[in-house]
Amino acid sequence: MWMALIAWIYPAGHRADVPDSASYVRALGLPAPFAYADFAARSSIREERGVPPAEQMIHQLVEGQEVVIRTARTVYPLAERIPDQVTADLLTKMKQVHERTARMLRSLLS
Hints:
Elements: H1 2-9, H2 12-15, H3 17-27, H4 36-42, H5 54-81, H6 85-109
Helix pairs in contact: 5-6
């Protein structure tokens, strides 16, 4: 079921953005996270333990999407001020994807 849900939420075009994001981070002269531990150490989304009921999992996914949306909204003004249009565009695209995903997940709860 999870794979079907992921395919529904993240069409193939959005999953392809991950390598682009890593390339972008490297282009800024920073090391792109590689291992799960690297991502976990940098994440604002807390890791849950155990296996909660499906509805609670969906709530957690919505909360995670909202964290990403808030982060993008916080960083966007910095990109505009520099100005760094590439970063601003990336943040806009990321925010739109996560807003859409949060809406789709919420529809499963109603």
